[in-house]
Amino acid sequence: MQNIAPDARTRYRERLSPSLWLLVTVALAGPMVALIFVPVGSTIALIVGAAVSALLVIAFIALTPVVSVEGGVLRAGRAHIETRHLGTPTALSGDEARQARGPGLPARGWHLIRGGVDGVVVVPNIDPDDPVDTWTVSTRTPDRLAAAILASRG
């Protein structure tokens, strides 16, 4: 008996979480908020400041986009495309990635660019009905993402 069910394995998954320095910077909003509440009471100010810091850090982590390849679909944040509509991915890092994120960024492409993430994968969109030419996706492991896209196409 032949298995005709689509391959739903997760081949790649990465959360593009913010850097530690950005999280520290966001957490510093708590002490600033605490200063506002000092006239009400120092205990209340400490509680409110700690709560604001914790909530902001949790929100920054929870709201970061996820890049995944599973079941023949590339998901980058809220967008998704079937990998059969994608050409051969190009994994870039260093100066090549900076060029691809900056002056080389296509105007008719779809982009998920995150600051602090060096690598990028550029994938041509070969679907003739789609107005988007390429997908440019930030990733910390561009080689693994490119390999997962290729493997999911079969």
What would you note in describing this structure?
The protein has 154 residues and is of the alpha+beta class. Helix content is 36%, strand content 23%. It has five helices and eight strands, in the order βαααββββαβββα. The chain has a four-stranded antiparallel sheet with strand order 1-2-3-4, with helices on one face. It has a four-stranded mixed sheet with strand order 5-7-8-6. Strand 2 and strand 3 form a beta hairpin. Helix 1 runs antiparallel to helix 3 and helix 2 (29-37) packs antiparallel against helix 3. The longest helix has 21 residues, at 42-62. The protein is elongated and about 65 Å long.
How does the helix and strand content classify structurally?
Answer: alpha+beta
Percent of sequence in beta strands: 15-25%
Shape: elongated
| Uncertain spans | none
- How many E-type strands? 8
Radius of gyration: 20 Å
The strand order across the widest sheet is 1-2-3-4
Distance between the terminal alpha carbons, to the nearest Å? 20 Å
As an assembly, this protein is single chain
Biggest sheet layout:
4 strands, antiparallel
Total of helices = 5
Helix percent reads 25-40%
Order of helices and strands: EHHHEEEEHEEEH
Mean pLDDT: 91
Give the SSE layout.
Layout lengths: L9 E6 L4 H8 L1 H9 L4 H21 L3 E5 L2 E4 L2 E4 L7 E3 L2 H7 L8 E3 L7 E5 L9 E5 L3 H11 L2
Parallel strand pairs: 6-8
Antiparallel strand pairs: 1-2, 2-3, 3-4, 5-7, 7-8
